[in-house]
Amino acid sequence: MTDYNVMKDFTFGSRDEFTREPIAEKIIKLLDSAIDVSPMIIDGKWGTGKTEFCFKLKNLIEADNLNNYKVGYVNAFQADHANEPLLTLIAEVAGFYGEDDDRRKSFIKNAIPYLRLVSGIGIKAIASLAFGKYAADIPDEFQEGMEAIEEGSDSFIDQSLESIIKDQVEAEKNLADLKAALVSISTKTPIILLIDELDRCRPDFAVMMLETIKHVFDVKNVQIILITNADQLKATIKHSYGSETNSHDYLYKFFKYQINLPTATKGTEGKSVENNVTHFKTIVQASNVIPQEFKDNEFIYEIPTFLDLSELSLRKIEQTVRCIETLIIFEDKEQSKSQIVEQILMVFLSFVYMIDEGTFQEINNKEIDDVKFLHFTNASQLNVSEYSSVEELGLRDIISIIFNKYFGQECLYLPTGHFDRQRAAQKLSEILDIYKFSAETDYLIKFKDNNSYIYKYIDHTINNLLLFDIVK
After folding, report:
1. Residues 314 and 407 in one domain
2. 412-413 and 70-75 beta bridge pairing
3. The whole model's pTM is what?
4. Residue 47 pairs with which residues in a beta bridge?
5. Nearest of 211, 190, 225 to residue 73 by alpha carbon
6. Are 430 and 357 in a shared domain?
7. CB 331 within 8 A of CB 447
8. Closest CA to 348 of 385, 403, 293
């Protein structure tokens, strides 16, 4: 679960493994410019670190605040239960100023008429009175009206309806007054409102928030940034207005700019590295459960580079690390025979558990579709000879060799001649020695012999993963 209290103090200086500070700096340049960029969407898939980026952006704006911005953060999901998006945003703006500040008092005074109108306070009160519901929630000022109803008088309802009709007639004036109050309060101190987690809200609330942003907060010196999953927001719009709705056009009639958070960064060699691969190493290194010798095993960080992690969000990566931590807690270190490979298998099987339930069950049942498994690891069939090199047999191939006995058909081929096969086996042993695993060479290449302890270790690890249904 996201810890907002911890995250609110995050800065790019403390952690920026995805190299997102340059993106934040460009956003600030747009906000400072004469270009009309508000409202703006910062788009990212679920679990890509949007909320963390949001707080870091807020802190960066405030750290070098030459324009004297008032920067607010609104968690739309937390406000969802109140069902009053306008009230939520007005409260955030009012909160910039102290209770005795005249600007706050004037702003609230101008906001109340329109807020009363659009929130339907009068209608709700009348409904409560008419049906006798939620009596404890009825404000004191309506108690007299309740007594009138009980006595059979319609005067209270008539007066209330008259008041509502009057509010409707004055709606445009009320809205104009509220916008003028927003302009007035933001003239010397421009406002930036960061609205987060809207993609997690109920569809009706999300749409109400969008409408509020468009019709009320689209004023000078007030800039709105929505941090959300745009695809999910489009699905929300379709849910509210029907599947035939052009949700793309509907959404982008509200917004002038969209910034897309990239899902990859450039590595040290200029190669593109997926953010979740980077995040995996960061989370492992930060773990208080994973021992240092495990963290120092560089092979474990190679595993996510050849698996397809496109379906694993940053949050799913954190859950994968939780699987690894669980396995470590259950480990009997005294039974360890090849720590490096055991750690590799813990990480690999945790990723399989999170990515592909079908493959995980095939491993559990010792009946793996070799074509599917090789595709899963982005590996190929292996031909090992005495001339094979470390470069030719990387970690993904070692994993294929380990699981070879589970395959319907072998993927490991050695020469058929006796002496050539012996020399190839010796070469394989030298390669396996890199992983401190050469003692298992004979077990791995003899297809009918399952005496290698590593197969018992695989069973042990799978059973531990299945013991608790770690939330995915």
Report:
1. yes
2. unpaired
3. 0.67
4. none
5. 225
6. yes
7. no
8. 403
CA atoms lying within 13 Å on the CB side of residue 463: 8
Q: Where does the pLDDT of residue 227 fall: very low under 50, low under 70, confident under 90, or very high at 90 and above?
A: very high
Higher pLDDT, 419 or 272: 419
Identify the residue whose tokens are 């999170």: 354
Can you say how many angstroms the Cα of residue 275 is from the centroid of all Cα atoms in its chain? 12
Report d(CA 250, CA 170) in Å as an integer.
28
Within this chain, do residues 207 and 313 fall inside the same structural domain, yes or no? Answer: no
**Rg from Cα positions in the chain:** 31
List the alpha helices (DSSP H) in 313-417.
314-330, 339-355, 357-364, 370-376, 395-402
d(CA 198, CA 226): 8
The pLDDT tens digits for 305-363 are 899 887 788 888 999 999 999 999 988 777 777 889 999 999 999 999 999 988 999 99
For residue 457, give its domain range. 272-467
Q: Give the rounded distance of the alpha carbon of 332 from its chain centre.
A: 34
* Domain match, 234 and 376 both: no
Residue type, 21: E
* Residue 105 C-alpha from the chain's centroid: 38
In this structure, how many other beta carbons lie within 10 angstroms of the beta carbon of residue 169? 10
What are 402-449's pLDDT values in tens digits? 888 888 777 877 778 877 888 888 888 888 888 888 888 877 776 545
Give residue 28's pLDDT band: very low, low, confident or very high (50, 70, 90): very high
Q: Is the Cβ–Cβ distance between 3 and 12 less than 8 Å?
A: no
Lowest pLDDT segment from 144-148, 270-274, 314-318: 144-148
Tokens encoding 297? 């095993």
d(CA 111, CA 425): 81
According to DSSP H, which parts of 197-266 are helical?
203-215, 230-241, 247-252
Judge whether 122 lies within some domain.
no
